[in-house]
Amino acid sequence: MRLTGVGRRYGRGGPWILRGVGLAVAPGEVVRIEGRNGSGKSTLLRIAAGVERPTEGAAALPARRAYVPERFPPALPFDVRGYLRSLGRVHGLDAAEAARRAAHWMERFGIADRTGTPLGRLSKGTCQKVAVAQALLAEADLLVLDEAWTGLDGAARAELDDAVAERAAAGGRVLFVDHDPERLAGQVTAGYAVHAGALRPGDPPGRPGGPTVRIEVEGPVPPADLLPGRPVRTAGPGGVTVLEVSAVSSDALLRRLLAGGRTVHVRSVAVADALAGEAR
C-alpha cells in the first residue's frame, strides 16, 4: 500500500482535510495513526481502504482490502449470519467458504447465539463485533481499523488484538486508529500523526532509547524493509543473519519470521544492550 502526494477536500472551495500525504505500509507491518479529533485520521483511513478517492495524488492499494469504519450502520436488512455470509461473497468467497468463515468469527467473538438476530436489534457492543468479524473474514492484504476496539468488551478486544497479530504474521498489512496509546504496543512497527492536514512521523512504537533485541537466524530472511520494525540486518559467521530491532517490535518480527512454514531457524534471541554490557 502506498499513498503519494495525497490530498483530500470536499468541494472545489472547501478546506484541505489532507495535503501532500505520503505513506507506505509493507507486508507484515502494523501501522498506527494518531491525531486530534477532526484532524483527518478517518479521512486518511477511508482513502487507504478505497472507500474515498483522493482529490489529488495517488493511492496504490492492494486488491484485497477490508475496513471497519468508525461508525457501523446497523440499520441494514440482514440478520447476523446473512450479513456476514453476504460480505464474504462480496470479498470473493464462494458460498461454502463464506459460511465457514462467518461461523468461525461468530464463534471467536462469542456471537454464535445471535446468528438469526436482525442487525437493528443488536446491542452496540454486539453490533461492533459483527463489524469487526465482517472485515476479518476477508483475510485481506490490507486491514484498516478505525477505532475498531471501541465498544468491545475485554475478551473481544483481546480477540481482535490476536487477530491483528495473525493477519500481520500471514503477511497482511494493518493500518489502525485507536484512543488507547498502548493498543498493540508489542506489534506496532511504525506510528504517524495527522496534524494540520499533514502526516508526520509520530512517537516510535517503543520508548525512545529503549532496549534493542538481537535475533540470530539461519535460512532465507525477507528484506529488512518488509519486516516489522525494519530491523538492522548484518551478516554473521557461518551464514547466520543477525537482526537488531527495537524490543517493542521483536515479538512481531519473530512471528513474521516463523509464519507460513518458512525454513527459518531462530538460533538465539537476546537483548542487545545486555550483550554489550557483558562485553564491557
Gap between N and C termini: 43 Å
Shape: globular
Number of E strands: 13
Report the total helices: 7
The string of secondary-structure elements, in order, is: EEEHEEHHHEHEEEEEEHEH
CATH architecture of the largest domain: 3-Layer(aba) Sandwich
The tally of domains stands at: 2
CATH superfamily of the largest domain: P-loop containing nucleotide triphosphate hydrolases
SS-based class: alpha/beta
pLDDT below 50 for ≥5 consecutive residues: which ranges? none
Task: Estimate the helix proportion, in percent.
Answer: 25-40%
As a percent range, the share of strand residues is: 25-35%
Radius of gyration: 20 Å
Overall pLDDT confidence: 87
Please state how the strands of the largest beta sheet are arranged side by side: 5-6-7-3-8-9
| Main pleated sheet | 6 strands, mixed
- CATH topology group of the largest domain: Rossmann fold
CATH secondary-structure class of the largest domain: Alpha Beta
